[in-house]
Design a protein that fits this description.
The structure holds three protein chains of three kinds.
Chain A (H helix, E strand, L loop, with lengths): L2 H14 L4 H38 L15 H11 L10 H18 L17 H22 L3 H32 L4 H6 L10 H4 L1 H14 L11 H4 L9 H26 L14 H23 L5 H32 L4 H33 L13
Helix pairs in contact in A: 1-2, 2-11, 2-12, 3-11, 4-5, 4-11, 5-6, 6-9, 6-13, 9-11, 9-13, 11-12, 13-14
Chain B lengths: L1 H22 L3 H21 L3 H25 L15 H21 L13 H10 L3 H26 L1
Chain C lengths: L1 H29 L28 H25 L6 H23 L7
Helix pairs in contact in C: 2-3
Classes of the chains: A mainly alpha, B mainly alpha, C mainly alpha.
Chain lengths: ~400, ~160, ~120
């Protein structure tokens, strides 16, 4: 069974009804949009339940367990409650900006769903600049948080808003650098092409096997881009109460909350597409519908990793976080990118067999990772000797 | 036909946003209107089938430049959130200059023989841009990196002065 | 081809923008509305808020934004190069390496001048 075929037969059916071609196209877009929106909203409810349950299990609690079996109805109950709650707008707030911010926050995350390939060719819009599209709408999210922080006219909200911008901007650089590596290996910005470029028997062609350091770098930077622990400084409850959304209540808060979860899922989906082969898996060429299963399985595995980290690690300090980005992740990303470019070019010029290039890429990744880790380790050791073992506040070196 | 109607709508919204940028009394609101302008221009790029430029427009102008502008607003003393008048004593001089410039530009635009391009945008347009960067346009490409380096050094110098 | 793909994005953009507005309007219809001055005051830390929230911020944020702009531009320049990578020769790779190293020098400079320290 092919999902693409369903779409095509739907178009054929519409044309059979005697509807002009332009309208058929429009109806097609409309149906596609509604499907993506429905998927996103269903996912949001599922993810909220999943993350709460996972965090509960990891921290030896039960998690939601009252409403419905295993607390499955809990997110729906929450949604209903938030829908009917009184909405408090602070008197000092800048009203238009204040109300626009949650709308933009949801808008930017939903837009990201439009280009994710769920299976081969099963994608809302199969555009040639997929990777750049993701970066572009990701950047719009920063604006929403800045708006929320400013419009609330609250010191904590403003501080949270500016912290989030500093953080998201900084971590966008290493993310852009590692996203360039699959683009370089495949030679296309199209997400569907990148996923189909990672074929091979039983997932051996996934880029995570030949570029593990790049994948790790993406994962760490994605934790920061998704505002998740240990990089959740913008909503550090003990420092700035809740960050940019402190003054938001009821449905407006719900939209920020939902955008946060969907953003994490999108970051997982991008990791899946760029490094874990997207919809690739055994027998997917014979039964295309399996691609959807593989894609969701991998994405939920990535989401599980995000939730795991969140439930486990304590929070970083802001100076540590910024230094880690600029002094560790950015140089490492540049090294990986240049290393990959040189090795691939050498392989192509000297016409090495494909596996040779891949082995060299893997070796390069391990070397970069080991060098970085040993530098960090050595620095921490000298620090612990000189500073009387004050390891609780390590700082990265100044040149 | 549909394309023309869409173009008129998008262009009208973009122009309204631009107007908002100029007349907004609150600087932060002006910055937000500017974001709207940038977004509208990105949509116009997409409608011209210039995908790469559209995406780059959003990434650089909304993601980076607009944020920079907002930071500049909050960095300046006593500007954030203040309602500033849009007029001062010299407004009519500025008005005259702007009208003159507008008429000049309009005249030039009418005179200009724009080439009608009917060719399709090639499927590998982005690849061709990349090849252009390291091929025909290699000198501007490398000069751009020097320019970026100079900008970085200048930014650090300026910020250090402000800090001390 | 292109129109077909971006048409969906356009339609979806309109829906994705209108949907949250509709839900917010819907909650506005059904939710209770009983504001009072105390409820609507700024929530900070339990005692009354002192001074305006819109104060002057530090140059630190501006500096990071500037460094970000430079590196963001670099990334945008490199993306088309990455796409064209298989079609260009050694010399082109050499040029791109110079481009990246130039920016790397900038990063080292920022590091050396303590511009990467969050103070």
């Amino acid at each position: 069974m092919d999902l693409r075929a369903i779409g095509e037969s739907f178009i054929a059916w519409l044309q059979g009804l005697g509807i002009p071609d332009g309208w058929v196209l429009f109806i097609n877009w409309l149906v596609g949009s509604v499907l993506i929106l429905g998927l996103a909203l269903t996912l949001a409810l599922a993810l909220i339940w999943l993350e709460r349950k996972l965090a509960g299990r990891i921290q030896d609690r039960l998690g939601p367990n009252r409403v419905g079996p295993y607390g499955l109805i809990q997110p729906i109950a929450d949604a209903l409650k938030l829908l009917t709650k009184e909405d408090i707008t602070p008197a000092e707030a800048d009203r238009i900006t204040y109300n626009l911010a949650p709308i933009i926050a949801v808008f930017h995350v939903l837009m990201l769903f439009a280009v994710i390939p769920f299976a081969d060719q099963v994608v809302g819009a199969n555009i040639n600049v997929g990777v750049l599209y993701l970066m572009a709408f990701g950047a719009l999210g920063t604006m929403a948080m800045l708006m929320a922080g400013w419009a609330s006219r609250n010191k904590y909200a403003l501080l949270g808003g500016f912290r989030v911008v500093a953080q998201l901007l900084s971590y966008e650089i290493p993310i852009a650098l590692v996203m360039m590596i699959p683009v370089l290996l495949v030679g296309s910005l199209n997400l569907n092409d990148i996923a189909s470029g990672q074929g091979g028997l039983f997932g051996l062609g996934w880029f995570v096997w030949i570029m593990p350091a790049a994948f790790l770098l993406y994962f760490i930077a994605a934790l920061a881009e998704g505002e998740r622990a240990p990089f959740d400084l913008l909503e550090a409850e003990s420092e700035i109460v809740a960050g940019y959304n402190i003054e938001y209540s009821a449905m407006k808060f719900a939209w920020f909350y939902l955008a946060f979860f969907l953003n994490t899922w999108i970051l997982s989906a991008i990791a899946t597409t760029l490094f874990l082969g997207g919809w690739q898996g055994p027998f997917v060429d014979k039964i295309p519908a399996l691609g959807v299963v593989y894609f969701f399985a991998k994405t939920f595995f990535m989401f599980f990793l995000f939730a795991w980290v969140r439930a486990t690690f304590p929070r970083l300090r802001i100076d540590q976080m910024m230094a880690f980005c600029w002094k560790v992740l950015v140089p490492m990303g540049l090294a990986l990118l240049l290393g990959a470019a040189i090795i691939v070019k050498m392989g192509a010029e000297m016409s090495w067999p494909g596996y040779m290039t891949n082995v060299l890429l893997l070796v390069m990744n391990i070397v970069v990772l080991l060098v970085m880790l040993s530098l960090l380790g050595r620095y921490t050791r000298t620090l612990s000797e000189t500073k009387n073992k004050r390891l609780f506040a390590p700082e990265l070196p100044r040149l | 036909m549909v394309g023309q109607i869409l173009f008129i709508i998008v262009a009208a919204i973009t122009l309204l946003m631009a107007l908002g940028t100029v007349v907004a009394r609150n600087l932060f609101h002006a910055a937000l209107f500017l974001v709207g302008v940038f977004f509208g221009i990105a949509v116009l790029f997409i409608m011209l089938e210039a995908e790469f430029l559209g995406a780059a427009q959003i990434i650089i102008y909304i993601g980076a430049i607009a944020t920079l502008i907002v930071f500049a607003i909050m960095l300046s003393k006593n500007v954030m959130g203040k309602e500033a008048g849009a007029y001062n004593r010299q407004w009519y001089l500025a008005m005259g200059g702007v009208v003159f410039f507008f008429l000049l530009m309009g005249w030039l635009l009418i005179q200009m023989p724009f080439a009608q391009v009917s060719a399709e945008v090639p499927a590998d347009a982005i690849s061709q841009i990349g090849q252009g960067f390291v091929g025909h346009f290699v000198v501007p490409f490398e000069v751009a990196s020097v320019l970026l380096l100079v900008a970085l050094v200048g930014a650090i110098m300026l910020a250090r002065e402000r800090n001390s | 081809m292109l129109t077909q793909q971006y048409g969906l994005i356009g339609v979806f953009a309109v829906i994705a923008f209108i949907f949250p507005i509709v839900t917010l309007a819907f909650t506005w219809l059904i939710r209770p509305k009983r504001p009072n001055p105390l409820k609507n005051s700024t929530y900070e830390c339990g005692i009354e808020t002192v001074g305006d929230a819109w104060v002057q911020f530090r140059a630190q944020y501006y500096l990071f934004a500037l460094i970000f702009v430079v590196f963001d531009l670099e990334a945008i320049f490199l993306f088309p190069f990455a796409v064209a990578f298989n079609k260009v020769g050694w010399f082109a790779l050499f040029e791109a390496i110079i481009f990246v190293l130039m920016l790397f020098v900038g990063l080292i400079y920022a590091w050396k001048k303590n511009a990467l320290e969050w103070q």
